[in-house]
Amino acid sequence: MTERSTTRRRLLGAGCATAAVAAAGCLDRFGSAGSGGGETGGSGERSLRLTLSRRDGSLRDRYVIDIADARSPDAEEAFRTTLEGSAYTTQYRTPFRSTPDDPAYVREDGTYYRLGSVVVDEAAETRPVLRLRDGTRTDDADGSADGDSTTDAIVAEELPESDQRAVEIAHMAARARDDEGGVPWGLVQRGGYVYRSERAVETSRILSEDGPDRVVYREIEYAVEVAEERFYEPIHRATVEPVATSLERMEAILRAKFVDARVNRDALSTDESEVLRSARGDGYDGTHPYSEAYRNVLTALHERAYLDGDVENDAFNDPEHGTGTILYGDEYYEYRLRFTSSSGG
């Protein structure tokens, strides 16, 4: 039914990681505990929904870019300089904004190139870090309901654009300290916002000598805290590597990199074909214990965690578990798995 793809690894934490045919005990727990199966403590029946979305065109159309459209504004200079045999380096950020898991490819004069970088040194820099503390709702600041604060706090919208972004991100960190919830690590650093752009520092009102002590953002008044801190930042050297000179070879490279599973239409049973046909429409919903056809489809997608383990409580290293790209016949599809309830959750 399938050809196994090893292009993406999912590492699972504790759970019942046994073969599907030997997982009866685990599957019973999986269903009765309400983390992936039929009943959820009396709250209604749970379904595992599979949806398929067709992706038009080739993988080249999606992943091979024009160098002028690269995410980094300096990408074209980095590409030309490296292609000519000279070194091009950037500090902190990668030159093409690409990573091993999310590489960038370009075509130039009939040759396809993979754009990347290597770390060749480090640089020590002192950067301003903005943190927000002691958040208080403005309608509680003076006991009144009109939202007027008794302090000299400045409203974030009155600040320069770079400061507005800094306050927004520092607010996310402050909110996470006070309440449960996520925080966008990568934007938030050291519990606040790090000013790295020279222009942002030069135009900042918050960083000026007479900068505000307090700021209001989304009706919450914060104390402003700015610290100069030492950072050790990587220096990246751009790499431009030729990988293919034909359309077919480039497509094969991208399939090997990005396709998670391959499904042979001719090897499907009638019931398995029906599961995938429904998934291409409004989605296919299966309740525990899953049908043999649905189990076979999940196995074909290499999503055994949904069969063999307590998937909602397992420690996934891959934040995108339950999603991926498949080659179904000769067409590409994005699939998604999620749990729903009888109330349509």
TrEMBL record:
<dbReference type="InterPro" id="IPR006311">
    <property type="entry name" value="TAT_signal"/>
</dbReference>
<feature type="compositionally biased region" description="Basic and acidic residues">
    <location>
        <begin position="131"/>
        <end position="140"/>
    </location>
</feature>
<protein>
    <submittedName>
        <fullName>Uncharacterized protein</fullName>
    </submittedName>
</protein>
<feature type="region of interest" description="Disordered">
    <location>
        <begin position="131"/>
        <end position="152"/>
    </location>
</feature>
